[in-house]
Amino acid sequence: xxxxxxxxxxxxxxxxxxxxxxxxxxxxxxxxxxxxxxxxxxxxxxxxxxxxxxxxxxxxxxxxxxxxxxxxxxxxxxxxxxxxxxxxxxxxxxxxxxxxxxxxxxxxxxxxxxxxxxxxxxxxxxxxxxxxxxxxxxxxxxxxxxxxxxxxxxxxxxxxxxxxxxxxxxxxxxxxxxxxxxxxxxxxxxxxxxxxxxxxxxxxxxxxxxxxxxxxxxxxxxxxxxxxxxxxxxxxxxxxxxxxxxxxxxxxxxxxxxxxxxxxxxxxxxxxxxxxxxxxxxxxxxxxxxxxxxxxxxxxxxxxxxxxxxxxxxxxxxxxxxxxxxxxxxxxxxxxxxxxxxxxxxxxxxxxxxxxxxxxxxxxxxxxxxxxxxxxxxxxxxxxxxxxxxxxxxxxxxxxxx
Length: 402
Ligand code: FAD
Ligand code: DHB
Description:
There is one protein chain. The chain is an alpha+beta fold. The protein is built from eleven helices and 20 strands. The chain has helices spanning 12-23, 36-41, 50-58, 63-68, 88-91, 102-115, 236-247, 298-319, 323-350, 358-373, 375-386, and strands at residues 5-8, 28-31, 47-48, 70-72, 74-79, 82-87, 97-99, 120-121, 125-130, 138-143, 146-151, 154-157, 175-190, 200-202, 209-215, 218-225, 260-274, 277-278, 281-283, 289-290. The strands form four sheets. The chain has an eight-stranded mixed sheet. A hairpin with a 2-residue loop joins strand 5 and strand 6 (82-87). Helix 10 (358-373) packs across helix 11. The longest helix is centred in the last third of the chain and has 28 residues, at 323-350. Bound molecules: flavin-adenine dinucleotide and 3,4-dihydroxybenzoic acid (DHB). The site of 3,4-dihydroxybenzoic acid has 11 residues, from strand 15. Flavin-adenine dinucleotide (FAD) binds at residues 8-14, 31-34, 39, 44-45, 102, 124, 127, 158-160, 163-164, 266, 285-286, 293, 296-299, 302.
């Protein structure tokens, strides 16, 4: 087999990249470890930045999103038993975010790719990357128990944090920056109408809690727990009791309950591997970096990388211009680090830390007070939350190069 760009992984990074390449007339083959059913049902993120939504419409895959997505013009920060709204439309030039589950995005992307007759090879195993520092890299793998070889011009490593692409870079090339957090999130899906029209990020002495949703009938709720939390210790009653306490307000706000249909624990980590390129291998999305989930940036950051990479491949194939490919890593990392900063900031703002001092706690409350009472501070939160511009893609920020 031969293609122009071999894409490893059919997550948001790989699938968006393939659609963007198709728009440039560039051929690609996607190799995915799991089955179509598995990736289309895997419960993960659920919040799309303004630019991610615009891109789905531009790519002609926004029809279900338009019907089912829930547009949110703000969020609530809740602390000291009181809520404070951050109004995105006012503070971030009329922009909003949209609730639409990651696996729904995946379904839309897979359907569009297959409808266009472009290949995704599901359930490929033993994927290995070769000759990355030559002009003729190739990928070997097994598909339907047959050993295969895919020759290509470039490889896009979009296979997430646990994939094979990043480890294929020779030792000593990448510098890793990381931070672990001493807690995780216990997340549930519940058949209960969301108790608030917008998301609530709650700071509480018992730990952080987040109210989100998936539809007018389904709530998505998270609570801070230990990073190695044992789910078997969390009965449905215990989860609801904890959520009630963490969301409690002085004005008697009520959290509605319903049957819990899914439970899981997510770890929290900040991680960046630099550079995001080695020879003809380009890393995008979680393969290169991960953020703690507070602020919902992981998926959106993967999409931003895919946009920068597609532009660079476009320039290469249209004009033989490899400047953008050479700048890919630096261009992405500038934005990646701003998003890392924001995700870290939201995380440290809202969680209780096991080793925090009384000073840390008072400073955290002052930070919450400041961000909800200063227009400048709430505007900073709003413009990061709706999504920083992707280089060269945001008309309203034309000239403001990131
Ligand atoms: P991925 O979505 O991980 O896609 C990588 C793809 O590569 C996968 O389909 C995988 O099967 C495939 N793959 C892996 N190894 C191989 C291989 N060897 N060969 C071929 N294919 C391979 N973000 C948020 O913003 N909010 C959240 O609430 C949130 N919750 C999350 C919960 C969980 C359990 C996880 C794991 C992540 C969560 N994230 C969340 C992060 C967000 O989902 C990711 O940032 C996003 O999926 C990144 O997209 P990606 O395409 O880079 O990687
Ligand atoms: C969701 C996840 C997040 O991490 C977040 O900050 C907001 C919403 C969600 O899954 O809906």
